[in-house]
């Protein structure tokens, strides 16, 4: 169990990944982004998650360099994730896209690189490229995002390196029990994107009742629920107060009964695309 903001999960290749981080989906390049990333680092966050398609890798890189220059953190203490976009999938194009991301980030290596979506006919070649980057030491860990069980089985068939992480939509309305169990059995770490269902869950009466019981916000209850399921979580915020609030989840523990009540909210409902039927 993750017990504090610096606690890590050990991936199957021995790399240690923080159990909690900052996501920057839909945060535009600019001072707000730089300030948010630096605020997160200042308040103890060590994992930052971006992607090529977010079009903010340069700002994330600027924030990281400034934080290092200001002695807020050392590079080796940070865990930086980016993702390969769909239009760049394939072996050679994936390698080129990785270099473009690294140029924008201004980093010498990446801690985690993910295939963003399982593009049919291409993701296995993309995975070969990620294996190459991993063997070369350009990336410490490699994984996938939005992969269902059959995608994982397909990519592992003939792969030299098993995915270390699968980042998926995961929240109380989409608990993905079978996928979570499969990943546990395979030693693949599940990571939640959109853990708060883009804010849709904040008015849920069951979650509000549980939050009142523990003296916590609905967001804090959900993020704690993630951790107690062994799922890494990366909530997004640009507001310093919310960044602090989101991470204030290590001073309480949800009872088994309350965990089950939250699990029971599942409707298999997504706010993002279906990985088996998406068009980008």
UniProtKB/TrEMBL annotation:
One of its GO terms (molecular function) is oxidoreductase activity, acting on the CH-OH group of donors, NAD or NADP as acceptor. SUPFAM superfamilies: NAD(P)-linked oxidoreductase. InterPro entries: AKR, AKR5G, Aldo/ket_reductase_CS, NAD(P)_OxRdtase_dom_sf, NADP_OxRdtase_dom. CDD domains: AKR_AKR5G1-3. Substrate binds at residue 116. Residues 31-267 form the NADP-dependent oxidoreductase domain. It comes from the Bacteria. The record marks 83 as: Lowers pKa of active site Tyr. It holds the Pfam family Aldo_ket_red. The active site is at residue 54. Keywords: NADP, Oxidoreductase. Belongs to the aldo/keto reductase family. This is Aldo/keto reductase.
């Amino acid at each position: 169990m993750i017990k504090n903001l610096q606690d890590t999960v050990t991936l199957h290749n021995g790399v240690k990944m923080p159990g909690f981080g900052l996501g920057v989906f839909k945060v535009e390049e600019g001072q707000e982004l730089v300030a948010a990333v630096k605020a997160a680092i200042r308040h103890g966050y060590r994992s930052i998650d971006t992607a090529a398609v977010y079009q903010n890798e340069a700002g994330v890189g600027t924030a990281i360099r400034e934080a290092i220059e200001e002695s807020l953190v050392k590079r080796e203490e940070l865990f930086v994730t980016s993702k390969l976009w769909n239009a760049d999938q394939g072996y050679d194009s994936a390698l080129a896209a990785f270099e473009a991301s690294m140029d924008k980030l201004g980093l010498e290596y990446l801690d985690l690189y993910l295939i963003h979506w399982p593009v049919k006919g291409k993701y296995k070649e993309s995975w070969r490229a990620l294996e190459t980057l991993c063997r070369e030491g350009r990336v410490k860990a490699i994984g996938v995002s939005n992969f269902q069980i059959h995608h994982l089985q397909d990519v592992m068939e003939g792969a030299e390196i098993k995915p270390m992480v699968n980042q998926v939509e995961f929240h109380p309305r989409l608990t993905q029990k079978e996928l979570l169990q499969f990943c546990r059995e395979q030693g693949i770490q599940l990571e939640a994107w959109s853990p708060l269902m883009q804010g849709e869950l904040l008015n849920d009466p069951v979650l509000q009742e549980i939050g009142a019981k523990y003296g916590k916000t609905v967001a804090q209850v959900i993020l704690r629920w993630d951790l107690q399921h062994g799922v890494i979580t990366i909530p997004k915020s640009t507001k310093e107060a919310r960044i602090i609030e989101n991470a204030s989840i290590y001073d309480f523990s949800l009872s088994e009964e309350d965990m089950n009540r939250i699990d029971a909210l599942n409707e298999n409902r997504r706010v993002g695309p279906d990985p088996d039927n998406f068009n980008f």
